[in-house]
Automatic annotation (TrEMBL):
SUPFAM superfamilies: P-loop containing nucleoside triphosphate hydrolases. Keywords: GTP-binding, Nucleotide-binding. The keyword Ribonucleoprotein does not apply. Gene3D superfamilies: 1.10.8.470, 3.10.20.30, P-loop containing nucleotide triphosphate hydrolases. GO terms for molecular function: ATP hydrolysis activity; GTP binding. Residues 5-274 form the OBG-type G domain. This is OBG-type G domain-containing protein. The lineage of its organism: Eukaryota, Fungi, Dikarya, Ascomycota, Saccharomycotina. It comes from Kuraishia capsulata CBS 1993.
Amino acid sequence: MPRDPLIGIVGKPSSGKSTTLNALTDADAKVGAFPFTTIDPNKATGYLQVECACSRFGKEELCKPNYGWCKAGKRFVPIMLLDVAGLVPGAHEGKGLGNKFLDDLRHADALIHVVDVSGTTNAEGKATRGYDPLQDIEWLQDEIRRWIEGNLLKRWGSIVRRHTATKSLVVDTMQAQFAGYGATGQLVARAMERVSDLPPLQDWDNECITKVVKAFMAEKFPTVLSLNKIDHPDADKNVSKIMLKHPNTKAVLTSAITEVFLRKLSKQKFVVYDEGTEFVDTLEDLGPESGLKPLDEKLLNRIENIRDLVLYRFGSTGVAQVLKEAAAVLDLIPVYTVRNMTTFTGNSGTNVFRDCTLIKRGTQVGQVARHIMGEVTVASIEGVGGKRVSADDSIDVGKNDILSFRLAHSGGTTMNF
Ligand SMILES: Nc1nc2c(ncn2[C@@H]2O[C@H](COP(=O)(O)OP(=O)(O)O)[C@@H](O)[C@H]2O)c(=O)[nH]1
Ligand SMILES: [Mg+2]
């Protein structure tokens, strides 16, 4: 069974990783028990916002997910995040706890690179002014590349000897080398397709190796930039510099500190804040029947500033969006498994769409079954409207994304899932 997707949060010290993680993992009391089987201290559950299937059928009122929650058709689906703290320049040589950091990174499927675009922290994360954050983007890519290259070059002699002695295919040799990064054979094959005109492996020079490693990184660590601290006055010019230099890199403008602040005020009933949007309302806006507490002048000014500098300018704090982009680079879509295709309920009760799993678009329905239930024999698969779905049909948003699996029982009878 493939693992649950894991998104690594990376960046130099003081770029805002912890603040971002706090904002992404801060959940309502409504959240169910932890859905993931393995949990270690640097992993945390984030919540990805998706449009819930309940809204397609006008069943928002009955939607009560087993994990995460659903608010008027906007569903918050748990997704695992990895806090990769402690990455400092020179990590690939073991600086700081560099090797430990890079080891953690192996398990990540995509990265959110938090970049401090205020220019107020230097390469090590120490306070400064006028620092150019473009350097941080190149640095991170370099750090990862040099780590992978270092591991490869250490063994290069024996890799080449084995490759020629066994007359292996280049893709097989490289698959064996990259398997340690948690890469599947398919992923390595895709990476190798990105590089053309390579000489035979025994003739590769360092330049060839760099090319191959870069191609591998593009597949293994697709990255979304979180251009953070956009509330700072110097952010604008740095953001445009980065966008011009990296036009093809996914980037979201964020103010993690604003997101954390608004959520705190919302919990304390000073404001109504709709996460991921530009809407924040105070007692002044909504009147006494809102039940909101009054804000003092200082806080009111701060909210006014947040609206002007962040919310109205950029449309939101960007924190929810950055997670959406990370899920989008992995092409993850929500798939709902139900027991009853007429009511969309589960094993008991009247609540709908209780189970939702994030799976790559285009995955075959049979693989979806294995992903969710392990190695089971599926007797039949039903889609919306009671339609029979074939195991080799693929999934997409609105297509085979609501499924009911009927399992073949070992005794010969069937069992509903
Ligand atoms: N102005 C501003 N400061 C931020 C923002 N996000 C984080 N910070 C501040 O940057 C500093 C480092 O943040 P932290 O999350 O601890 O960074 P980490 O070392 O990457 O985990 C803290 O003082 C935060 O309050 C932001 O969006 N805007
Ligand atoms: Mg931190």
